[in-house]
Amino acid sequence: MLLGRVVGQVALLSTTLSAALAAPSGFPSTGNGLWYTSQGTADTEFWSEEWLPVGNGYLAAMLMGGSATEVTQLNIESLWSGGPFQNSSYNGGNKRPDEAAQMAADLAGIRQSIFDSSDGTIGSTESLATTPTNYGSYAGAGYLFSTLDLAGDVTDFFRWLDLDAAVHRTSWTQANSSFFRETFCSHPIQACLQHVNTTDGSTLPATTFAYSLNPESGMPIPAVSCFDNSTLQVTGTAGSPGMMFELLARVDATGQGASVVCTPSGTNATITVTAATAATITWVGGTDYDMDAGDAAHNFSFKGPDPHDALVSLIGPATAQDGGYDAVVQAHINDYANFMNTFQLDLGQTPDLTTPTDQLKSAYQTDVGSPYLEWLTFNLGRYLLAGSGRGTLPANLQGKWGKDSSNPWGADYHANINLQMNYWFAELTGMDVAGPLFNYIEKTWVPRGEYTAQVLYNTSEGFVVHDELNTFGHTGMKTGGSSYADYTGANAWMMLHVWDHYSFASGDNEWFRTQGYPLLKSTALFHLNNLFPDLRFNDSTLIVNPCNSPEQSTITMGCSHAQQLLWMLFNAIEKGFNASGDTDTDFLNRVISVRDQMDKGIHIGSWGQLQEWKVDLDSPTDTHRHLSHLIGLYPGYSVFNYNATHQASPTANYTNDEVIAAVTTSLIHRGDGTGPDADSGWEKVWRAACWAQLKNSTMFYHELTYALERNFGGNLFSLYNPGSPDIFQIDANFGFAAALLNGLVSTPDVASWDDELTIYLLPLSPVPWESGSFTNAHVRLGLAFEVSWTDHGQSLKTATLTAGANTPAGQRVRVMHGGQVLRQLEVQPRMKVALV
């Protein structure tokens, strides 16, 4: 879809670009950025693979990277269609209270049918599901046009995304003048800015700023007016009816005699700037969504106040700071650097400052690779998490970048791999982004999820959700396919993140007591009530019934994924109990008792595989995209650190070597992430992370490079299925960074404080990168590592361990490299140890 008449004209401009012999002036000398010699295609079908992102968590934007006309597609983090804003009777996709008795009977019947069936499976659990009416989608907030009154050929054009500064820039020559435009979203002031000027300080041609009258596809046409003589006011809704949103966009101009005038015209308005040497438009945005109103006390309305007053209070300071625009951009750069520079990575890359990024990507080959492009993709992943994870809501399926009234899969929160993958590397790299994630779980999952537990599962304790979640607490089971809907493990999987946050921070007891542990406990309470004696194998174990292994079609009992998850959840309860302040020892004893009785989800099958289900149903030709039964390999630990002392089965007592051999067999047979069911980037990078955990350098690098070649666009966005149009799905951007890092430092958890924690430095031998280093990689117990290497990681130049102030004294730690023990020690707070 072309963006209307204005962009259509831009797309037809003659652009004669000079040959690109070097990156643009001002591009980071480190090479830490993406650069191009042509603007992005105006057709928004190419938005996902050519446009470039900026964001601060609260707001986000995608830039076409135009010359005379720049097109900026806008996002507000909480703007969603559907939910109670569309239908006041929306109930999160749940059954009615008067259906609870029938659901209890249906669930009991399903459970018994599974036990009684010839192969331990049934066809469906659809009787438990509800049509997801008014589920909604993350929605775009429109388009901003910034237009200079220019004509003629464009030369010396460059656009680039500076990943050191978190700023998008464009430069070009036209009509005998050189122009420069930069755009960024500032976290400190919760605003985005776009600034344009001539490079020699001469007067700009007449400049206009307008909001698109061609709204996001499917969105009601908003009202655009002049809030004052220099400010556009945009008000609209995400549906009819729907959530209300507002944008305020204020223009400032410099230069003697500069004029800024807002002119209304019907339901639209335009700001015109004349006689200026520079012009800046600053915008803020918000909705009437309020996460704090998502509980029974507020009738699950999620309805907050009109955002107008809050936006006025933001736009004023954002446009009236001492030092003007230069001060604002410098404050933004400083804030971003302080947030990101706690961790540094070097893969021995040589920056290529002569080849545009899209050409580098086009030339990239599986297995051959490029340390520079891999380093750049890693850095982009961190940039995207900083730009989408620092707001009020967590990063969604597209981070915070989405267009139109409906995005693929709603750009929602898929919680059977995708949401989890978004945050895999956050703790390791010290990125403080987990708060919004845990607030979201506490305020949208728990209140409605407690109701779901009662009505759907006949459970009066704890909360439950299913796979697909919106911002309105959609906790019920969706109709349309038990393979993804019949999934009660989402809360348990997310509790691995809760525990990791405490484990890596090691000592944030106040957060753990007030938020982390209550989430763990509520999750555990639900699952304690939903483990049942195994009446099929009659082996005295407790199992989940029904369950499915995401997103397999088989509905059965004792799914390995679920059993492994719950075992790790119960371990976290025991390990965290003393720090929690909880005095409910009856609960702790109940957890320990159930954990000891439960099936641990570790069974070796008929062809040497780790079974995906307790019933041996695995096919050696199943190349399904999910690796659900290997969750204990990565990101969990129940498989990798299998220990018969904790996990022995009544029917089998394996060694760790036997379990790892079975895992390896399963991973081989699962294929390379290009099966008949999907061809996504996230399945490939998950495989890469698993191969890194198994210390297989060849397969790790094959999967990592295969994902980058096949599933990433010219703008290095991860794309779900190669083809046209390409679907942007951000999880592989984040998963790529996590998988790469797992090849450099691996810190799998252990079941008990009594178990020695092993940290693997450069577990791959050899690593794909000849030399390199990382600084301040955070691991469990509040430990951090600084490491440098040569000879593909087989030689460590430096390796230093530093303990935090709250590192627990006396915990046993073993540091490994190349299959050898570097050091065994009992850690102490603030200790610093040179390991080589």
Q: In summary, what is this structure?
A:
With 836 residues, this protein is of the alpha+beta class. Among the domains are: 4-81 and 138-340, putative glycoside hydrolase family protein from bacillus halodurans (Beta-galactosidase, Chain A, domain 5, Distorted Sandwich), CATH 2.70.98.50; 757-834, no CATH class.
How does this model look, in words?
The chain is 29% helix and 21% strand. It is α+β, with helices and mostly antiparallel strands. The protein has a nine-stranded antiparallel sheet, sandwiched between helices. Strands 2-3-4-5-10-15-14 form a seven-stranded antiparallel sheet.
Structure keywords:
disordered N terminus; 836 residues; Beta-galactosidase, Chain A, domain 5; alpha+beta
